[in-house]
Amino acid sequence: MANETFSRKVERIYSVGSCAKILKAYQYAEERHRDQKRLSGEPYIVHPVAVAEILIDLGMDKNCIVAALLHDVIEDTQASEQEIKTQFGNTVVSLVQGVTKLSMLNFKSKEEEQAENYRRMFLAMSNDIRVIIIKLADRLHNMRTLSFKEPASQRRIAQETLDIYAPIAARLGISGVKGELEDLALKFLHPDDYFMIVDKVAATKEERVQFVNKIIERLEAKLAELGVRAEINGRPKHYYSIWRKMQRGKSFEEIYDLHAIRIIVDTIKDCYEVLGTIHTMWKPLPYRFKDYISVPKANLYQSLHTTVLSSIGVPFEIQIRTHEMHRLAEYGIAAHWKYKQQGSVVSSADANDKKLAWIRNVMELQSEVDDSSEFLDMLKLDLYQDQVYVFTPAGDVVNLPSGSTGVDFAYNVHSQVGNKCVGIKINSRMVHLDTKLENGDVVEVITSNTSKGPSRDWLNFVVTPSAKSKIRAFFKKEMKEDNIRRGKDMLEKESKRRGYNLNELLSCEEWKNYIQKKYNTVAVDEIFAMVGYGGLTTNQVVLKMIDCLKKTIECKSVLEIKPSQAATASKKADSGVLVKGYDGFLIRFSHCCNPLPGDKIVGYISRGRGVSVHRADCPNLADYEPERLIEASWPSTVGDKFSATINITGDDRSGLFSDIATTLNNMKVYMTGINAKSNKETNTSLVSVTLEVDSLESLDGIINKLRSVRGVYEVARKSN
């Protein structure tokens, strides 16, 4: 039986039939997770119930709530997809599949697994938007309980939340979820700053409440006099938003919208009437007025923002919006989904629904990009770029990432408009295709039916992921024969440069198995075409073919140094490094990547200079002859000191250099070199320090300590 609090909440909101289905899902999930515990020691069922309650508060439908309760049963229990389908229907099992991670697949790296997870998440969104909303609720509850994880996991999960999940929530307009995700991420990434801001906000709370209440009293009296119905309340500011402004150089006291008022009225006409009234009551600050009603944000947020000066000289922000605008601002696409669909399954590919434009663009992107890592890179680009607002000749507003060109605009209109584009007019004047758009520009696309299509050079200046993918798609589909020919020529040259014959590489059975599993094809022409239109690089393909060939054929005959006949196991050189199958080598550590005990390492047999030891992720290895690479490892104990360089980014403030040096000195870390340079444009400093350490673990401890220095944003080991 479901717990009483959850049952009452469900019964209060949903119909009898919907309630029965939700409570049945609760009982199923509770039974499946019965013997499982969370890291907190609580029964596991606490997590799916918490996720479901977040979604109930967002106003989601019964199938979404059922899927939330069941979202971990396939991954973490013996439940089968068929069983869920039989008991709860096709819609629920589709949602659960969309949220389930790819834990059953093998990946070469954590980064590849993460990229594929995001790709699958957006792929599932092409069938149902609710997948992403469940995923956001899942992440929100995991962030609320993150304190039970190890510190390293806390930082990794918090950074991922800040990089991907919070921006997605922002783009979908779910401001409540976005704000809480950012605040929780700040708590684990910069705990000292977080608690300092919490204390400052708490210390000024009583004073701010009194100030805000006086403003509200004046507004209520004035609007009642005008006959305007309005809800007026104070708006708390999120800690992360305060922190971001303080990172840009503002003091806590200089942040205007700590004192914030929100006014909700019935009509758009009322919004502008209230704005005019406010500007007669208090003096508006220059350049602090924003009209997001006429020109909404990319996530469709609408409101009027103005900052005014009180009679005692304290600036405060006022936001004015309608009830509908407020509902969409708080719940974003979740509110829109419920309102528009009224319980039916949403089709986010609905070309007539402008409110889902960003979702459609992401889905187009995932269908046109073959590589998961490339998809993730392009998604991040789309999430983080600021917006520029331009107009069509008919006066419609189009928002694009900052730095966009007329060609980006053309592809935003339609792929065929972009493909047939032969010229761009900005404000009635012909301009170069790569001219960057500015706010307020009126953009007209000149097309021609005789155009042969886009130029490959366009890929050098378009910035929107959608434009890039559509240009690549054109070359992929319309010029397949040329792509095959071009791709084969490129691979032949790259293979020859590395000392291999392309036909020999292509005939390798390991390679054939790989492309069938990775790209679902055995046709070599498909790989040639992907290289030809830019979907794969020659390095990606040739290095993988060589790797497959090495697994099949022993290529030791080309090595200049012969292995010791007696050495069949790993041998230890004077340096302490173990190299497999060889001994008597001169071993040296490469200065390009400075490997440390704990790093994964490989050896490279050089001509006449013995073996150089590199980190396995050293970028310079890509340019080396792969057959000269040999296995290497560290012994169980290492006593020597090794050199490592770390880069520290922070505020360009007096004393930063001294604080860093003092911290290292207190840790008894020996520095062999230190230098710093400042960037006046960004008001930041970059300090590079070369240290002597005995292990990767020691270096991680030093990096974590330096992150606590006041004003430091980032500390990272120099890669090369």
Please provide a written account of the structure.
The structure is a single chain. The chain contains 28 helices and 21 strands. The protein is globular and about 90 Å long. With 720 residues, it is α+β, with helices and mostly antiparallel strands. The strands form 5 sheets. Strands 1, 2, 3, 4, 5 and 6 form a 6-stranded mixed sheet that branches.
Features:
six-stranded mixed β-sheet; 48% helix; 720 residues; 16% strand; alpha+beta
Low-pLDDT parts are 102-108, 337-355, 554-574
Shape: globular
The fraction of residues in strands falls at 15-25%
Main sheet specs: 6 strands, mixed
Mean pLDDT across the residues is 79
Distance N terminus to C terminus?
Answer: 59 Å
> How many DSSP E strands?
21
| Helix-and-strand structural type | alpha+beta
Classify the oligomer. single chain
What percentage of residues falls in helices of 4 or more residues? 40-55%
**With helices defined by DSSP (H or I, 4 residues minimum), what is the helix count?**
28
- Rg, alpha carbons: 30 Å
